[in-house]
């Protein structure tokens, strides 16, 4: 009998699954689709994945023609890889609607949350010059409790240590509040009204929080589609 490593079927679903459904691969594709290209940058989006396994998965994606590695060492989606964008977003929309994350579950992570939030700052809404926003998550481990967004022009840097500039806005909340808000499982405005998310500092920045801090791509797409939240 032939030893098979795949499903042994000619069905296109089976063939695609052999490539796309290995552990961590959808999350790597999510990072690439979101704009990450450097190895370390991709790894920050999947911090629980070993670097050796990430390197192996990237090699597999290159071998299958989904990703290319350019002369600078950056990873880029090919035409075939870019075509997976709607599929990965669709998986997220399905999960956002049908698989509700428990508020007290173990999967909420301040680092992953902030890394994703960094990509969704609408710098055009912010005033010109440097803007510094500090986040304080009361339920995060001490080493993950405080984060800083350093925003200047169109550049947004995420800092885990004090960058040394005056803070324009302080945001105090918990990961178990901000996380569900971020993925669209609960609305932002009531969380602010109940002071589960507290913004202190420059009034203009606090008032426009919901405009310059855009929600996740999944939350945005779900809202556009008019889809109800799970439950």
From TrEMBL:
Domain HTH hxlR-type: 11-103
Highest rank taxon of the organism: Bacteria
Gene (UniProt): yvaP [H]
Keywords from the named record: DNA-binding, Transcription, Transcription regulation
Protein name per UniProt: Transcriptional regulator, HxlR family
Annotated GO MF terms: DNA binding
Keyword Protein transport: no
């Amino acid at each position: 009998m032939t030893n098979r490593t795949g499903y042994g079927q000619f069905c296109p679903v089976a063939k695609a699954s052999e490539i796309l459904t290995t552990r961590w691969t959808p999350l790597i594709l999510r990072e690439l689709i979101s704009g990450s290209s450097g190895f370390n940058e991709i790894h920050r989006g999947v911090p629980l994945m070993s670097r050796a396994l990430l390197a192996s998965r990237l090699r597999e994606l290159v071998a299958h023609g989904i990703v290319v590695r350019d002369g600078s060492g950056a990873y880029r989606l090919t035409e075939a890889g870019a075509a997976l964008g709607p599929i990965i977003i669709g998986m997220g929309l399905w999960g956002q609607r049908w698989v509700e994350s428990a508020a007290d579950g173990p999967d909420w992570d301040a680092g992953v949350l902030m890394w994703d939030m960094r990509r969704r700052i609408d710098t055009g809404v912010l005033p010109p010059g440097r803007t510094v926003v500090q986040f304080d998550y009361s339920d995060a481990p001490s080493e993950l409790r405080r984060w800083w967004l350093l925003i200047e022009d169109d550049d947004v840097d995420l800092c885990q240590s004090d960058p040394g500039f005056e803070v324009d806005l302080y945001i105090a909340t918990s990961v178990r509040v901000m996380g569900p808000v971020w993925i669209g499982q609960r609305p932002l405005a009531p969380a602010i009204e109940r002071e589960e998310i507290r913004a202190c500092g420059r009034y203009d920045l606090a008032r426009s929080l919901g405009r310059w801090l855009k929600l996740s791509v999944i939350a945005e797409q779900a809202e556009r589609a008019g889809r109800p939240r799970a439950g």
